[in-house]
Amino acid sequence: WDQSEPDWERDGNGTLGTFVCVARNSLGTARRRLQLRLADRPDAPRELRVSGATPTSLSISWSPGFDGGLAQTFLVSARALGAPPSPVTLLAPGPALTLGGLLPATPYDVTVRARNARGDSAAVGIRGVTS
């Protein structure tokens, strides 16, 4: 550790550290600053959209956020307006899913969360209407 370099502290949530690696030999000194982000919960999905609708289905897609450094899946649920929350949450391995068995001409609130081994992201939502 080179004492002339500043002592870089972690950020407030403890997941990001900046380190300085110093190598010296008879040919000189080399310094490299590195950032390390430890595995954490994933970021929420982005750009959630309804990509298709039929009388009994909604196709949704989204862009994954940062995966937290671990493999992630997505939890998707849909609730018809005015109905109790759906007890079913579907697991999607990738950023798209078609929800079937829905009521025709009905608005649904759809939520998506990312999940990895460290936990779940915040939920994002969109309203879709079956045709």
TrEMBL record:
Pfam families linked to this entry: fn3
Domain Fibronectin type-III: from-to ranges: 44-131
Positions in coiled-coil regions: none
InterPro entries for the chain: FN3_dom (IPR003961), FN3_sf (IPR036116), Ig-like_fold (IPR013783)
Domain of life (superkingdom): Eukaryota
Protein name stated in the entry: NPHN protein
Origin species: Todus mexicanus
This protein's encoding gene: Nphs1
